[in-house]
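User: Predict the full complex structure for these chains.
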Amino acid sequence: MENKQIKNEAITPREVDFAQWYTDICKKAELMDYSSVKGFIIYRPYGYAIWEEIQHYLDKKFKETGHQNVYMPSVIPTSLFQREKDHISGFAPECLICTKGGQEDLDDPLIIRPTSEVLFCEHYAKVISSYRDLPMLYNQWCSVVRWEKTTRPFLRGAEFLWQEGHTMHESEEEARTETLRMLDIYDNLGKEILAIPFTKGRKTDKEKFAGALETYSIEALMPDGKALQSGTTHYFGDGFAGAFGIKYQGRDGKLYSPHQTSWGVSTRLIGAIIMVHGDDNGLVLPPFVAPIQVVVVPVAQNKPGVIPAAREIAKKIQDAGIRVKLDESDRSAGWKFSEYEMKGIPLRVEIGPRDIEKGVVTIAKRHDGTKEVVNNDDVVERIKLLFESIHKEMYDKALRYLLDHVTEVHNMDELNAALEKGGYAKMMWCGDQACEDKIKELTNATARCLPFNQTPFDDVCPVCGKKASKVVLFAKAY
Amino acid sequence: MENKQIKNEAITPREVDFAQWYTDICKKAELMDYSSVKGFIIYRPYGYAIWEEIQHYLDKKFKETGHQNVYMPSVIPTSLFQREKDHISGFAPECLICTKGGQEDLDDPLIIRPTSEVLFCEHYAKVISSYRDLPMLYNQWCSVVRWEKTTRPFLRGAEFLWQEGHTMHESEEEARTETLRMLDIYDNLGKEILAIPFTKGRKTDKEKFAGALETYSIEALMPDGKALQSGTTHYFGDGFAGAFGIKYQGRDGKLYSPHQTSWGVSTRLIGAIIMVHGDDNGLVLPPFVAPIQVVVVPVAQNKPGVIPAAREIAKKIQDAGIRVKLDESDRSAGWKFSEYEMKGIPLRVEIGPRDIEKGVVTIAKRHDGTKEVVNNDDVVERIKLLFESIHKEMYDKALRYLLDHVTEVHNMDELNAALEKGGYAKMMWCGDQACEDKIKELTNATARCLPFNQTPFDDVCPVCGKKASKVVLFAKAY
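Assistant: Here is the predicted structure of the two-chain assembly.
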């Protein structure tokens, strides 16, 4: 059964203005609102609830892999932040700084944390003394502040919510394994609940995190052809450990520096969900991350028996552990249909007098607009199956788009054409930063990553013509 | 079976120095550490995990009562904060203020939120327009900053973690009901998981929240005789709504101001748990808030079969949904006993070669130091029963202490004697703030609350001798 969805006039079509479409959804699906401070957004209940689902998934995975949550101060003394030189030079331009406390000037102004490496390191120096204390596997859920000039809801904020893992290890190998293990957890988040295929890879030296030896990322491809860095994990070696005097006594009684990692994802993921899955009628949420998975809408609800039947079906769905909302407000069914389409609720269960007579309900699927009639007794089982199939269809659709937008390029013309088309230009690279800089200068695209699949398909760098053995993905990015 | 616990020498006895005993536990049970910024503590994994248990309990109750989580900016423009006059004058002395962003001076300096009423109100003015939008029931989990001069871990911090609920209602009655409903949820938190009996009551005008019409609190009594304000709920009337221009169209088409509440508890509750239940061997955690409810300690673990048996029993306990830790490290059993006593883990399960032979384990209870032998097959069931009885015993013990420390006083001598003894001096009060001020001046005690049980027991105010009809509890307080 097909159901041609009615265009929601409140949203700018993607074809007309993709950026405006995005902002319209953020606002009209009530995910966020602006505050009076630029770049500091209000996470409204519906947007925050998506973050809670992500938190719920990740927090469980973090704990299963032995990590513990902590909370560090939200401010960093300037003197402390300056202790690791690469790190401070990377973050200094975007620091928000407190200079007054209780109406007195502060001797050592406090920076609102843009990231917490130095705070963790200061603590680690106090609590790590023996190999018995390692590994130390900490994570923190918090907000961070980066005083950005150009901000967009969820994608780039002066303040955003995230988690930051910070771990210390006895051996380099163990720390490197951790860096990749956490990247896999992020990748699985995409596969299992966001329905987003990520591309995993290593960052070039130019693009890596300030102070890290190596940065890995998951990148997602947006429908406008731009990449979105969606999560990163970093291997630090013992650089911070040295700067902060963190030493442990090894199994042989000698002193060593531990090996460090950090890793994080943020509310930027909400932006990825909006762009990857949304359509011109609004948000489309994958079922396993949707705060409301099913909405029950009574039709002709003033007719006797409709509301009780709707309540009964909603209760049955809720009792099965499904996140369900029953809307028995006095708005019209048409208003409700449009509202919950805008909000991207995966399934709508409609129940009216004729359905009740027949002992059925109608289930409408948000992601493809189709409907089906289901016997009352089969509703819960059918919904669970639909969640699986909808998730898979949404993931596969995004994966097809991704695969259609990875173009192997062998020269600068092909590179330009690939970037013009949108998506990744996959090229061989000599490894010289000058070539990377030149591409950015000419095209505004950046090296997104050296993907884990490094099968060469050519042997020269299209920029300088020298021998090239590295596979790299370039794209314009958020 | 009695087990005289060995004194843990790392902790100052309460009799010697109660304040030092408290700090020792905070540090040595690894609940927190100091950072380099005064009053900004590090919530270490074990301390943070207690907060997570509290969050888990409350978040569920908040959602069951229709509240939704949001996240507001962590900063407030000075101009915005000044809009409600009582409010700003209450908080101005303890504000931490950002004056520089990205190396430029800010025109309108940003205050790190000490509380978020004004942020919620600014948002409410945009999203509330009709009675259909009400009630608006929001909550936020976050940290707040108050630039305090005298700080103590958990009890008074320059930064602390809390939740702040902010709600808007159509009628005064509904808002007042909300204020009391949330107070009951806090009270139940004490009854159900903290094992702390709170005293509920209304604050005097002198002690109420800056900008509120009425403040209610839950007060807990500490073993040093001082009261600890452990949570508050506020009824604001429409004062903020007026200052922020929040109006809604009522059912009759006319414009009205909504009625507002806010309410919060913080990580201060961890301080209450430490003091109410702790002893000279360390922390004593009530079972339902303990991050680790049971620790399994193998005895003579090098003997064959001990570790496998310990793992089996730990798995059985874990599979029953109980939070269990198995310590099979190479530390001595004695070290482990002392360590987990310090950390206040409610139950220790010991298993050694002789236990294995007999098919039993020994269960030691932290709160009273007794032990019992239990058949392997009965362990899970017995643990569950013990949780119930331990919780009840801990609650009852705290309640007896509380009841023993409420002294009815009829004159100033009795008031002084009651405060000297410690606990609450329960007195009749004329309602005049001058009398309240005088008691504070003479005794340093403050009016903790007008308890909900207002049965008069006298008819004159002991300070001024005038007619008195209000029952009030005075105490020294944290």
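Chain B touches chain A through 52 residues (CB under 8 Å).
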